[in-house]
Amino acid sequence: MAEPTYAYWRAHGSVWHPAQPIAQFASALWPLHGEVGTIGNQAHLTANPPEDHCPFSHTGWPIPNIYPYVCAIDYSGPKWVLTRNWWLYNAFLGFMPWAKYINTGEGMEYTHADGFTHGHKNSDLGHVHMSIRSDWTHKSIGDFHVTAPHLTFGDEGNPVRVAQRLCHTTVDGIFGPATQAAVKNMQRQHGLSQTGLVDDATWLAILPKY
Questions:
Q1: DSSP 190
Q2: 88/9 Cα distance (integer angstroms)
Q3: Relative to the CA of 181, which of 22, 75, 114, 210 has its CA 20 to 30 Å away?
Q4: pTM (predicted TM-score)
């Protein structure tokens, strides 16, 4: 069956579903409490043509948004600042190839086009907002951690590499003695208890502020 046209979609209720990365992000964020919203609001859906993150939107990038997917998410739960800083630093490192842009919730927006390194003014406040590429609707985010995970001695993987970069130690993805010592040093510098564990407070201290 051919993909429905815009006219067919409108005539049959403008039904939509979250793109796969958005569904994965939402599933991981819901247990953290607070508001999680995929962006298919009525004003966007009923615009002609539909706006922003909705199916058939002309503002999708790098192609018009694909039926029937909505391509953005908001999160305003208690960890939204930590989550925002985690997203942006990972995007800056190239670990979020699906991201089109991220709004900080504090008046700035960072985009894929500028490598997530130069902020632009934006009016969103009080929540982190992410829009994904319109050519990533069917693709998975794989084993990406949607929020900053707690790390301890013996852990391995990409989040460990991120922590190692931020703690200025060898980046090998293995949380060994050198990484633990570097974490304790950063905790001391920031006035935190020197546990050697990368918890929420440690991430907030070492991640860049946006």
A1: T
A2: 34
A3: 210
A4: 0.91
77-136 pLDDT per residue, tens: 999 999 999 999 999 999 999 999 999 999 999 999 999 999 999 988 999 999 999 999
Residues 125 and 192 occupy one common structural domain: no
Burial of 117 (0-12, 13-18, 19+ CB in 10 A): exposed
DSSP-H helix ranges across 12-126? 20-29, 42-46, 80-92
Quote the domain boundaries for residue 106: 6-132
Instruction: Supply 163's token pair.
Output: 């922590």
Amino acid at 78: P
Q: Provide the 10 A C-beta neighbour count for residue 124.
A: 15
**Residues 128 and 162 occupy one common structural domain:** no
Asked if 42 and 123 sit in the same domain, the reply is yes
**How does strand 69-70 pair with strand 17-18?**
parallel
**Is the CB of residue 104 less than 8 Å from the CB of residue 119?**
yes
Q: Are residues 21 and 125 in the same domain?
A: yes
